[in-house]
Design a protein that fits this description.
The chain is α+β, with helices and mostly antiparallel strands. It has helices spanning 9-28, 35-47, 59-69, 97-101, 124-131, 188-201, 219-229; strands at residues 72-75, 78-83, 86-92, 108-112, 115-116, 138-144, 151-157, 159-162, 166-171, 176-181, 206-210. It contains 7 helices and 11 strands. Strands 2, 3, 4, 5, 6 and 7 form a 6-stranded antiparallel beta sheet that branches. The radius of gyration is 23 Å and the shape is flat.
């Protein structure tokens, strides 16, 4: 086991400088500030100085990302964004609880149960805390459809929301198959292998693997999928760091 490298003297001085600046802002700035948000912004700006592939993921974003990569979660089935303090539905999961209830893309969610959730500086975790829940439980949401002004209330029964990563597979020509993979999740290899087997049975000789818009995910899943298409014993990926 390799001992972690000790923090250098320069790093210790930089940490002390950052702590002093943050303390002065919190203590002396003319308006109240959100220290957590300031630190997040500082971290993002710092990592931009490294390379295009080093990025900071907040705990809230990581929780959502892990739920998607693990193949499913219990909830109402919507993709959302928080725009100017308002929860906006980007897309309801096709066939999911929200879709069946009548929630549409562009809807603004303004209440969950009796709580107003618009204009309160809500964050991603605040949304998921209110909308996720055990399968079979109900939640009331009040929305305003896009282009309308009237509030509408929906009672939605939460369900298991599957997160397929192979979203399309078919024969593009008599001998060319097509598979679109949107991320590398915990079940991506099994989904890919199933699609691959089906296409081979239909006469596939060549394959188009569409990774446009793929946001990444688990390295092991990507490695196993690559291994299906690379013969012999070449090294697919290796990692090397300071330790």
């Amino acid at each position: 086991m390799v001992d972690p490298k000790p923090v250098s003297s320069d790093s210790s001085k930089s940490i002390a400088k950052f702590r002093e600046v943050l303390s002065n802002i919190d203590r002396s700035y003319v308006d109240s500030v959100n220290a957590i948000e300031l630190v997040d912004v500082a971290i993002v700006s710092m990592l931009k100085e490294l390379d295009p592939h080093t990025a900071y993921i907040s705990a809230e974003e990581l929780e959502m990302s892990n739920m998607r990569l693990k193949g499913g979660y219990d909830g109402i089935g919507v993709q959302f964004d928080v725009i100017r303090d308002t929860i906006v539905v980007v897309k309801p999961t096709p066939g999911g609880p929200s879709d069946r209830a009548g929630i549409k893309a562009g809807d603004r969610i303004i209440k969950v149960e009796e709580e107003v959730v618009a204009g309160i500086d809500i964050r991603t975790k605040g949304v998921t805390d209110r909308l996720l829940g055990k399968k079979g439980t109900e939640v009331r949401v009040t929305v305003i459809h896009f282009g309308e002004s009237e509030e509408k209330e929906f009672t939605i029964t939460r369900g298991k929301i599957p997160q397929k990563t192979v979203v399309a597979s078919y024969m593009a020509t008599p001998d060319i198959g097509y598979i679109k993979l949107t991320s590398f999740g915990s079940k991506s290899y099994e989904e890919f292998k199933f699609a691959l087997t089906e296409l081979k049975e239909q006469g596939m000789k060549k394959l188009i693997l569409d990774l446009q818009g793929n946001g990444g995910g688990y390295m092991l899943a990507a490695e196993k999928i690559a291994d299906e298409m690379i013969g012999g014993e070449p090294i697919i990926v290796s990692q090397k760091g300071k330790t």
